[in-house]
Design a protein that fits this description.
heterodimer, A: alpha/beta, Rossmann fold, five-stranded parallel beta sheet, 8 helices, 5 strands, globular, B: 47 residues, mainly alpha, 2 helices, 0% strand
């Protein structure tokens, strides 16, 4: 079991006023307790650049410090490969071009051989979309992903 | 907020040429390296 967390979880972790903060902290602590590897990757960086533009640098520094404090690994991934895989997902009409960044997270999770993708955005990170992603992944000889909110992953994998 | 950022960024990336995208991703990586160094330095004085 190897978890990838998307930017929504990293941001919630870093912001004590975020509505998902406590649940995010609880989730990461459960992963630590069960010695489950937790990762972020390049799509987070791409989004942080935009967050700096809109929310200022302080917010980004908090996210980076938090990621480090919780022992979350930053895994390198070639963004060209992420782009190409996200294009295959787009060609399969899984989501639209407006949601390319969401597909980046699916692609990074798959390319890093992570088994689970956790996000608070249940509109674009859910079972139904995971089924479509996994059809493409099977053709690409990539792992099948389990996708959902941290609370869903905790329940599904008995991490309580 | 994050979803709005993602949608804007997704559309911006769509308008870039492959070369521009490559530069953008390289730039993002450099920003990340810089931010990481800044975060580390800040931690050293606040803890």
């Amino acid at each position: 079991m190897k978890i990838y967390i998307d930017t929504s979880v990293a941001i919630s972790l870093a912001d004590p006023f975020d509505i998902f903060h406590d649940q995010s902290v609880d989730f990461i602590n459960k992963l630590i307790k069960h010695k489950v590897e937790c990762n972020v990757s390049a799509p987070l960086i791409v989004e942080l650049g935009k967050i700096v533009e809109i929310k200022g640098m302080e917010r980004c520094l908090d996210v980076l410090n938090t990621v480090e404090d919780f022992g979350i690994h930053f895994k390198s991934v070639d963004m060209k490969e992420v782009w190409n895989l996200s294009q295959i997902y787009l060609d399969a009409h899984i989501l639209t071009v407006r949601h390319r960044l969401d597909l980046f997270h699916y692609a990074a999770t798959s390319l890093l051989n992570c088994t689970h993708l956790a996000s608070w955005n249940s509109k674009h990170f859910n079972d139904k979309i995971a089924i479509k992603i996994n059809k493409v992944n099977a053709k690409q000889e990539l792992l099948s992903l389990i996708v959902g909110k941290p609370s869903y992953i905790v329940r599904r994998e008995n991490l309580g | 907020m994050l979803q709005k950022i993602r949608e804007e960024l997704s559309l911006e990336l769509e308008q870039m040429t492959p070369k521009q995208r490559e530069e953008f991703f390289k730039g993002a990586e450099e920003v990340y390296e810089g931010l990481k160094r800044m975060a580390k330095a800040r931690t050293a004085i606040t803890r």
